[in-house]
Write a structure and sequence with these properties.
By secondary structure, the chain is mainly α. Helix content is 64%, strand content 0%.
């Protein structure tokens, strides 16, 4: 967050810290979607899968 505040100040408040935050969040979302290797590693660590009934 500190970096986002600094970027806001560098842009003379033309680009608010909240915009930088949203940009960062979108990058994280994309990383989560594409990181199949880490996902596979973490899936192996799950011991008790939750079971859900399929709704009709």
């Amino acid at each position: 967050m500190e970096l986002m505040y600094r970027l806001e100040h560098h842009s003379s408040n033309m680009i608010p810290a909240t915009y930088w935050y949203r940009l960062h969040s979108r990058k994280l979302e994309e990383d989560i979607k594409l990181d199949t290797e880490k996902r596979a590693v973490e899936y192996k660590r799950v011991k008790n899968n939750l079971v859900f009934k399929k709704s009709a």
